[in-house]
Amino acid sequence: MHLIVGEDGLARPPWAATDPLLRAYYDEEWGMPVRDERGLFERLSLEAFQSGLSWATILRKRPAFREAFAGFDPDAVAAFDEDDALRLMADAGIVRNRRKIDATIGNARATAALRADGGLPALLWSARPATTPVPSSFAEVPTQSPESVALAKALRARGFAHVGPTTMFALMEAVGIVDTHLVGSHRRGTSGAWLPDGAPDPRFAAPGARAAA
C-alpha cells in the first residue's frame, strides 16, 4: 500500500498516516521550500544527526536540539568550544554522538565562511535538477541523484562533514529542492517549486546559485 486515505479524505504515505507528529510534519513542512541560511543549517544538521536513526526520533527531539544549538544560529554554533561539546554530550534531550556534534560545530563555521562565496542557500539550491522525480511507489523514489553526489562533493570541499550523497538527497527532499511526494498524495505539487508532473513551477525563484562542483 503506497498511500493511505485518512479520515479527512487526504492521501498520505504510510509513514505520515498515523503518528500525529509525523502527519503534521508531512502536511505542513516536508518538501516546502526553505531558502534562509539558518533554516537550511538546521535541516542540514538534523539530517546528519538522523543518519542511522528514525526521522521520528529526530523530530521529537527537535525542540531540545534547537535549545542546545542556540536555535541553529550558525554564528553562535561556530563559537562553540570544547566545554560546549561536553555540555552537548551530557544533554539527554539530543542525540549524544560526539562525531555528529563536532561535525555540526564545524559545519556552522563552514556556513559562516561560505558567505564570502555566495552563501549556503545558493550552494544548496544550485543542486536543483531540471526536473524532479514523479514516483508512483516508494520503489521509484531515489535515495540519491547525480545532483546530490555533486552537492556532497561541493560541501566537503568547503569544509562540511556528514554530508554524503544519500543524506544530501534527503535534505533536498525535505527543503523542496526536489519533490518526491508520491503521485496521488495530497501534497504532490503543492510546494510552489514544482508542478505535479515534475516540471519546475515557472513562478518559483530559487536563491542565486553557484555551480555545485
Automatic annotation (TrEMBL):
Residue spans of biased composition, Low complexity class: 196-213
Region (Disordered) residue spans: 188-213
InterPro entries, per database record: Adenine_glyco, DNA-3mA_glycosylase, DNA_glycosylase
SUPFAM superfamilies reported in the protein's UniProt record: DNA-glycosylase (SSF48150)
Protein name: 3-methyladenine DNA glycosylase
Source species of the chain: Agrococcus terreus
